[in-house]
């Protein structure tokens, strides 16, 4: 049976996120839309306009064909040609086997909220999953954790990392190692009616020579294609042609954007919240991509290559490059949401706790770049508990506050609360029994001697 808990009862959550869900008025100045009460109303949706971008639509269709996406997803991509269409977005890095469970919950949430908008307003709404393929941290996406048959955690991972530290993970090709990981997964999963079908899907998607991005897309297409989920590859060159004007705007206002982010960071920290985005005043808020590797750019336009001398390009040369190849410029975390909402007519974005904290620093950047900041809705948050573990938790009436203290503290609590668990008395009784036995043995041995 499902239970709901307040977020404040869960460990490790960002304090700004807790304020966002429990006292939005206290942080409302950091956001453009009050997400509370949107359900069934969606007032202000008339300010969302779909500036149709043919390059975006054509790029999405090309990927959808390559990933064998379902008919409903194709129809939703075509709907982006309609100026009246709006979108509900979410996204995640392209982790092994789909990444953490909340990536699946995000996709499901986007689908449900798109259906809600369409039912409430009569306006076409499409769900979009932004596949973050342009990060370069291989060790954030190379593993999957799950419980084995004994309830212990198992970590499945690919250990052969790319030679280049800054290689874009979405373009990394799987090798024969993936077959070993799938075999290990076979032995970890319970032998039920779902194991064979699930492994067959994974084996179809995660094959040698397939990239991380394509494998992820094929899996999500299989799971959510019938629900019309649009999959966006953040490294799609065709789609990124539509960002040309935005990239030019960013390159023309690097110092202003850095100053705005610095001030927004100060505003957040002055209210006692930690800054989720760490400011780098000497760097541009864009990366430069070349041959599948991304490099930082200094604030004055120099490309910091890893194994060769930096390119002292300068801002004007970068603008010339961007005019022909906007796909070579990748947004940092401070600009990724702005790119997404520039490309799509975003009515709402489904965000996790850390993402909501990111957004608290971005409103001035949205305004400066003349991009509408959407409603930010907390994503669906679920914890699935195995039946045998649930029986133990229910029997002992453990609360989330107790669980966050760890297993040793739970054992101590259990022993302390049961009057029958008199450890001191038990040892005292055993000592008395041993003394009696010792006396008995001593007397008997003396008699025998």
Which shape, going by the Cα principal axes? elongated
Estimate the helix proportion, in percent: 40-55%
H and E order:
HHHEHEEEHHHEHHHEEHEHEHHEHHHH
Unreliable stretches covering 5 or more consecutive residues: none
Strand content: 5-15%
Widest beta sheet: strand line-up: 5-2-1-9-10
Counted by DSSP, the helix tally is: 18
Query: Using only CA atoms, what is the Rg?
Result: 27 Å
Sheet with most strands: 5 strands, parallel
Compute the separation of the termini in Å: 70 Å
Question: How many DSSP E strands?
Answer: 10
Class of secondary structure makeup: alpha/beta
Rounded mean pLDDT is 91
Describe what this molecule looks like in 3D.
The chain has 449 residues and is α/β, with parallel strands linked by helices. It contains 18 helices and 10 strands. The strands form 3 sheets. It has a 5-stranded parallel β-sheet, with helices on both faces. Strand 3 and strand 4 form a beta hairpin. Helix 1 packs across helix 13 and helix 2 (54-66) packs antiparallel against helix 3 (71-79). It is elongated and about 105 Å long. The N and C termini lie far apart (70 Å).
Write the layout of secondary structure elements.
Elements: H1 15-22, H2 54-66, H3 71-79, E1 86-93, H4 101-121, E2 125-132, E3 143-147, E4 153-157, H5 177-188, H6 195-205, H7 212-224, E5 230-233, H8 237-240, H9 244-251, H10 254-270, E6 283-290, E7 293-298, H11 315-324, E8 329-331, H12 336-343, E9 346-351, H13 353-359, H14 363-368, E10 375-378, H15 387-396, H16 400-403, H17 407-417, H18 423-448
Parallel strand pairs: 1-2, 1-9, 2-5, 9-10
Antiparallel strand pairs: 3-4, 6-7, 6-8
Helix pairs in contact: 1-13, 2-3, 5-6, 9-11
């Amino acid at each position: 049976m499902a239970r709901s808990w307040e977020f404040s009862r869960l460990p490790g959550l960002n304090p700004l996120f807790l304020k966002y869900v429990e006292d939005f008025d206290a942080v409302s100045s950091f956001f453009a839309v009050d997400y509370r009460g949107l359900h069934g109303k969606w007032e202000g949706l008339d300010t969302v306009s779909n500036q149709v971008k043919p390059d975006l639509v054509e790029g999405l269709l090309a990927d959808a064909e390559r990933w064998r996406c379902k008919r409903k997803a194709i129809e939703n991509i075509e709907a982006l040609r309609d100026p009246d269409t709006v979108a509900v977005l979410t996204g995640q890095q392209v982790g092994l086997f789909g990444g953490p469970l909340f990536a699946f919950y995000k996709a499901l949430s986007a689908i449900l909220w798109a259906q809600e908008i369409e039912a409430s307003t009569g306006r076409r709404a499409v769900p979009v999953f932004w596949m973050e393929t342009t990060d370069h941290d291989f060790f954030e996406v190379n593993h999957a954790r799950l419980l084995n048959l004994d309830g212990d955690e198992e970590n499945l991972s690919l250990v052969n990392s790319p030679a280049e530290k800054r290689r874009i993970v979405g373009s990394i090709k799987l090798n024969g190692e993936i077959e070993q990981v799938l075999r290990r997964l076979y032995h970890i999963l319970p032998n039920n009616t779902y194991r064979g079908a699930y492994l067959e899907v994974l084996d179809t998607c995660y094959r040698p020579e397939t990239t991380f991005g394509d494998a992820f897309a094929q899996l999500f297409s299989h799971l959510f294609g019938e629900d019309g989920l649009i999959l966006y590859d953040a490294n799609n060159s065709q789609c990124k042609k539509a960002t040309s004007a935005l990239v030019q705007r960013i390159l023309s206002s690097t110092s202003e954007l850095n100053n705005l982010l610095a001030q927004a960071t100060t505003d957040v920290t002055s209210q006692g919240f930690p800054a989720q985005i760490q400011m780098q005043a000497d760097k541009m808020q864009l990366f430069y991509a070349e041959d599948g590797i991304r490099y930082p750019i200094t604030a004055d336009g120099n490309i910091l290559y890893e194994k060769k001398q930096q390119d002292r390009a300068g801002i004007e040369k970068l603008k010339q490059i961007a005019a022909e190849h906007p796909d070579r410029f990748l947004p940092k975390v401070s600009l990724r949401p702005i790119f997404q909402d520039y490309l799509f007519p975003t009515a709402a974005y489904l965000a996790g706790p850390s993402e909501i904290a990111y957004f608290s620093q971005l409103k001035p950047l949205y305004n400066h770049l003349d991009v509408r900041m959407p409603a930010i809705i907390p994503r669906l948050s679920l914890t699935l508990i195995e039946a045998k573990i649930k029986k133990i938790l229910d029997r002992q009436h453990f609360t989330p506050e107790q669980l966050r203290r760890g297993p040793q503290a739970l054992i101590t609590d259990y022993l302390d609360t049961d009057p029958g668990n008199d450890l001191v008395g038990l040892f005292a009784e055993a000592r008395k029994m041993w003394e009696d036995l010792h006396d008995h043995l001593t007397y008997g041995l003396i008699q025998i001697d």
